[in-house]
Design goal:
About 25% of the residues lie in helices and about 20% in strands. By secondary structure, the chain is of the alpha+beta class. It folds into two domains: about 210 residues, no CATH class; about 150 residues, Protein Transport Mog1p, Chain A.
Length: about 375
């Protein structure tokens, strides 16, 4: 899938509010017995952090502050419990997921669900019932860009789409410099969703400081924000045997918290597309200093297969290469850990409009050669 198509599903659903229920139509919130914001639990962040363990939130909340158990029980159906947001996203869309990008930027990610997977990048899952919250710090500029695009569309503030099954409600808001995104699927009523949204926003507003800004481990290899510096278009076409020129294109159109987190991090991502066409052959994404995230993600990833550790040229001490493909090698991923960064390449299922545009080599072999080209660029 082109990165240009990875628009937040929350935003797409929110735009449906115009045709359905407007933000002004949300009933009065359901009262609960939750403690008021300002009496929050202790943040999980500690004054010191192990750089190998990855970033901790600079926001002084824990997830139970945002949605306490009592509020969850009253406002969501039975069976919705606290869950790992990265695991839920990876089960639906096995790429570098929003949860890791937000955490890398010092943010907080939380989820409660019924055990079903969900990723906005993969679209809806009608069986998913749950709440997902992302809080991105230092997001004033990113929020301003979002608001400039979506103000007046129904995608700012709290909103519900009563045409969606299960009931979908969301929140896009900023408190100070913290951008809050909440997605609520299957609340017991629009009023219950409003109660949850208000609690989440109030809890972030009442939070104190969390962990200090994370410092990546010594020796982390710097990456630029332009993926062409690491993987230019020409080697991609040559190594995949594509007979027409390719163009590297970053995400285009719209804006989202995920896009803002990528920009705050300087995290490169792009698609390798045919000229004058949104179809293409491959994508590239990197999570700077993201080896910690790969260590968490690897045991969770089973799609399109479990990752397989491989040896390729130009691996240095501490570098790793992991490949995973469908049985027919039609869809392949390569995950590189290089200089403490997580770099991910995907060679897509065929989107070619003609034989000359097709990948003509075995995609597993081709993606491994692309990995060698990346390592040669970074380690050369």
């Amino acid at each position: 899938m082109s990165t240009a198509a990875r628009t937040s599903f929350a935003v797409l659903l929110a735009l449906g509010v115009i045709l359905g229920m407007s933000a002004c139509d949300v009933p009065d919130p359901v009262p609960t017995t939750d403690p008021v914001p300002g009496t929050l639990g202790e943040p999980t962040a500690s004054p010191t952090a192990d750089p190998d363990a990855g970033p901790r939130p600079v926001i002084g909340n824990i997830c139970d502050d945002l949605v306490p158990p009592a509020s969850l029980a009253v406002n969501m159906p039975p069976g919705v419990v606290a869950a790992d947001p990265a695991a839920s996203q990876l089960a639906a869309y096995p790429e570098i997921v929003t949860s890791y990008v937000v955490r890398a930027a010092g943010g907080l990610t939380c989820e409660w669900n019924n055990g079903e997977p969900y990723s906005g990048s993969a679209g809806s899952n009608p069986a998913y019932v749950g709440i997902r919250v992302n809080v991105l710090p230092d997001a004033t500029t990113q929020w301003a860009r979002y608001e400039s695009i979506y103000a007046g569309t129904g995608a700012v503030g709290h909103f519900c789409n009563t045409d969606f099954v299960p009931l979908y409600c969301g929140t896009q808001a900023i408190v100070g410099s913290d951008w809050i995104e909440a997605e609520i699927f299957g609340a017991v009523s629009p009023a219950a969703a409003a109660t949850l949204s208000t609690r989440i926003v109030d809890a972030v507003a009442a939070s104190g400081p969390g962990a200090p800004v994370w410092t990546p481990p010594a020796g982390t290899l710097p990456l630029t924000a332009d993926c062409r510096d690491t993987l230019p278009e020409t080697p991609v076409g040559i190594l995949l045997g594509v007979g027409v020129p390719l163009v590297a294109q970053g995400p285009a159109g719209g804006w989202s918290l995920d896009a803002g987190a990528h920009e705050n991090l300087g995290a490169p991502r792009c698609s390798y597309l045919y000229e004058m066409d949104m179809a293409g052959v491959a994508s590239f994404e990197a999570l700077p200093a993201g080896a910690w995230a790969w260590r968490e993600a690897r045991p969770l990833i089973t799609t399109p297969a479990a990752p397989e550790l491989v040896e390729i040229d130009f691996l240095s001490n501490g570098d790793e290469a992991w490949v995973r493909c469908t049985a027919d090698h039609e869809d392949c991923y390569l995950d590189l850990i290089v200089g403490n960064n997580w770099i991910q390449v995907r060679v897509w299922p065929d989107e070619a409009l003609s034989e000359s545009m097709s990948v003509t080599v075995d995609k597993r072999d081709g993606i491994l050669r692309i990995g060698e080209a990346i390592l040669g660029e970074l380690r050369g």
